[in-house]
Amino acid sequence: MSDAVLAALRGVIDMHVHSGPSPYPRRLLHYEAAQDGWDRLGMRAMVVKSHHHNTVMDVLAQAHQLASIPTEVFGGIALNSPVGGINPHAVRLSLSMGGKVVWFPTISSGRHIDCHPEGGHFPTSTVHTTTERIDAVGADGGLTAEAREVVGVVKEAGAVLNAGHMYPDQIRVLFTEARAAGMDKLVISHPNFVIGAEPETCEEFVRLGAYVEHEVGMYNPHRENRHFEPETLFEWISRIGPEHTVLASDAGQRGNPTPVDAWLGTCEALLDLGLPEKDLRRMVVDNPARLLDITD
C-alpha cells in the first residue's frame, strides 16, 4: 500500500459502517471496527448503522471496550418497520442518547422493496425479519405528518438527515422541505445503487444543500463481487465536486472486506486515476467532520 493513500486517509471519518451486532451477519463488532480503524488509519470517528435498530444502544453497551480506543463511535437510527417506521418517538430517543444520523426508510422503502422483492433480506439475514413498506410522502405529494415531525426533531438536535433508500422523487420532497426548514446536514447515500438517482438529479439535491455519499466498499478493485469500477466513482466526483461529496465504507458485513481494506483499495485507485490528495481528504475528513460537528 502506498504512503500517499495512507497519508490521505489519516484521520478518516467513516459515516457508514455496518459492524455488529445486527440481525444480518457481520464480520466484526463496533469496537473491533474502531480498533482496526485506529490501528491502521488513525480513524478519527465512525458512525455505525443497522437497518433494524437504534445503534446508539450498541455503542453504549460496548462502552467498556471502546474506552481505550481513540476512534469516536456514534450511532443513529434507520426508520424501517422494526422501529415503528417513521417514528418521531424512536428518533427522539436515539438523538437524545447521542445519535448523530437519522436514515429515512432503507429496507422498508418502496424503492428497496422493488429491488429486493424477496422480502427485504439484504442480502441474507440470520434471523427471520419482516419488512413492511414505509412511505415518507403521502397521497397529497408532501411529507406525511410523521415525516415532517421527524424533520423538526432532527433539525432541533443538529443531526444528519439521510434519505435512506427512497425513490429519488421522494428524496426531492424530503430535501426540499428540510431545506425550507433551514437544514443543511442532508445526505443521499449510494445514489447509483438501489436508489437510482442520476447525476443530474443529484446536482439538484446538491443545490438544496445535500452531500452525495458514495460507499468505497462498492468500488473496491480488490473485491471480486464489487458493484462498480473505481473509474465510475471518479466520474461522479468529477461531476458533483469533492466539496459536495462524502466517501464512506458501507462495510463490515461478513463476506466483504473490512472497512479499512475497502478504504485502502478504492482510495488508492482514486489517487492512481489522478484525484488530488487534497480532494480526497476533503471527502473523507473535512466534509464528514462538518456533518458530525467534529472540530478537533
TrEMBL record:
Top-level taxonomic group: Bacteria
InterPro entries hit by this protein: DUF6282, Metal_Hydrolase
SUPFAM superfamilies found in the cross-reference section: Metallo-dependent hydrolases
Pfam family, one: DUF6282
Annotated protein name in UniProt: DUF6282 family protein
The species this protein was found in: Pseudonocardia nematodicida
